[in-house]
């Protein structure tokens, strides 16, 4: 029996450094901590080019839905570790509860 819906999360930006380190680096030099940049969006797209290109070019059945992490973690120029005062990561690579909730919000049942 085929699955009713399949959700595929596109690559989540990897920071390479822990969120706590980024937070303290910004805090101690007096930078705002409401929005903390983790990397440029260009770097994210270059690092994940092969898989993003595959998802864009391949044909999937209608029941396959993509969750775009860039929509929640990035703007036009940057990807964030903290966005709107909410930490998006638990460590350097794993989404926090708030980050995961942002991704899950894209699931339409």
Task: Produce the secondary structure layout.
Layout: E1 6-9, H1 19-28, E2 36-40, H2 41-47, H3 49-57, E3 64-67, H4 69-73, E4 78-83, E5 86-87, H5 97-104
Parallel strand pairs: 1-3
Antiparallel strand pairs: 2-4, 4-5
List the uncertain runs: none
Largest sheet: 3 strands, antiparallel
Helix content: 25-40%
What number is the mean pLDDT?
90
Count of domains: 1
Architecture overview:
With 109 residues, this protein is an alpha+beta fold. It has one domain. It has helices at 19-28, 41-47, 49-57, 69-73, 97-104; strands spanning 6-9, 36-40, 64-67, 78-83, 86-87. The two termini are 19 Å apart.
Brief account:
This protein is an alpha+beta fold and 109 residues long. The chain has one domain (6-104). It contains five helices and five strands; from the N terminus they run E-H-E-H-H-E-H-E-E-H.
What descriptors fit this protein?
5 strands; three-stranded antiparallel sheet; alpha+beta; two-stranded parallel sheet; 109 residues
């Amino acid at each position: 029996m085929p699955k009713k819906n399949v959700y595929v999360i596109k690559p989540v930006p990897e920071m390479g450094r822990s969120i706590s380190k980024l937070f303290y680096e910004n805090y101690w030099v007096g930078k705002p901590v409401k929005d903390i940049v983790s990397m440029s969006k260009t770097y994210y797209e270059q690092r994940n080019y092969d898989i993003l290109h595959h998802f864009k070019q391949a044909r999937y059945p209608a029941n396959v839905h993509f969750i775009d992490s860039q929509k929640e973690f990035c703007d036009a120029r940057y990807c964030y570790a903290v966005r709107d005062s909410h930490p998006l990561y638990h460590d350097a690579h794993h989404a926090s509860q708030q980050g995961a909730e942002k991704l899950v919000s894209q699931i339409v049942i």
